[in-house]
Amino acid sequence: MSSSSEIDKARALSELRQFLKKLLLEPGTLEKTLEIAQRHYGDHKMLDKVAEDISSETLVKISEEAKERTLADTLFLELLKEVVEESKALY
Predict the structure, then answer these.
(1) How far, in Å, CA of 27 to CA of 64, rounded?
(2) What is the Cα–Cα distance from 1 to 7, expressed in whole angstroms?
(3) Which has the closest alpha carbon to 57: 80, 86, 34?
(4) How many CA atoms within 13 Å lie on the side-chain side of 63?
(5) Taking all residues of the chain, what is their mean pLDDT, rounded to a whole number?
(6) Are 20 and 73 in contact (CB under 8 A)?
(7) Using CA atoms, how far apart are residues 30 and 66, in angstroms rounded to an integer?
(8) Which one of 43, 47, 57, 61 has the largest count of C-beta atoms within 10 Å of its C-beta?
(9) What is the percentage of the chain residues whose pLDDT exceeds 70?
(10) Is the separation of the CB atoms in 66 and 74 below 8 Å?
(11) Three-state DSSP class for 3?
(12) For 49-86, how does the pLDDT look when each residue is reduced to its tens digit (9 = 90+)?
């Protein structure tokens, strides 16, 4: 594995760790982010709208522009979408 690849992985893990800490600092943030994701489920710009609402309604800030998001931001938004999709499939 190249040194550059290892640095990228370490950076991504650090970003994800910081991101998760933000989520845990404010009680109810995880529930709120799921509520926001459910609100925009099915919209073709779901991830952008979810990012915007999370930034405006919680302490967590995520860029609306996909190209400006960190890897941690992107992973979290994709995970939210996946969780909502799986919850919809149950019903």
Answers:
(1) 23
(2) 10
(3) 34
(4) 10
(5) 89
(6) no
(7) 21
(8) 47
(9) 98
(10) yes
(11) helix
(12) 999 999 999 988 898 899 999 888 898 999 999 999 99
Q: What is the pLDDT of residue 25?
A: 84
DSSP alpha helix (H) spans, 40-70: 46-57
User: For residue 75, with 0-12 CB atoms within 10 Å meaning exposed, 13-18 middle and 19 or more buried, which class applies?
Assistant: middle
Contact 39, 80 (CB under 8 A): no
Identify the band that residue 91 occupies on the pLDDT scale cut at 50, 70 and 90: low
Give the dihedral of Cα atoms 13, 8, 47, 79; nearest 10 deg: -40
Give the side-chain half-sphere CA count within 13 A for 73: 18
> What's the predicted TM-score (pTM) here?
0.82
